[in-house]
Amino acid sequence: MRDSIACPRCDQGSVDQCRVLSTQSVIWVCDECEALWWSREDVGVSSFADLSVVLESMGVRVSWDQLKPLLN
Ligand SMILES: [Zn+2]
User: Taxonomically, which superkingdom (predicted)?
Assistant: First the structure.
């Protein structure tokens, strides 16, 4: 069963757990607006980061290819 959450930021996408392939970091990211959270408990309106900003800060190329969805 997939463990996804309706995105509280854009109300359109779903927030899914993903692994960043090159760093093995586990993140939660919206498939529509690319809001990013570090844990499920953090997913909320005000506490999001931006996927591209976080990947750049890790030195990771900004692409969905870099993310592996973790399906539960
Ligand atoms: Zn969203």
Answer: Bacteria
Count of structural domains, the chain: 1
The whole domain housing 54 covers 5-69
| Distance of CA 36 from the midpoint of ligand 1 (Å) | 9
Please compute the mean of the pLDDT values over residues 23-44 and round it to a whole number: 96
Distance CA 14, CA 10 (A): 9
Distance 28 CA to ligand 1 centre (A): 11
Q: Tell me the CA–centroid distance for residue 45 and ligand 1, in Å.
A: 10
pTM summary value: 0.89
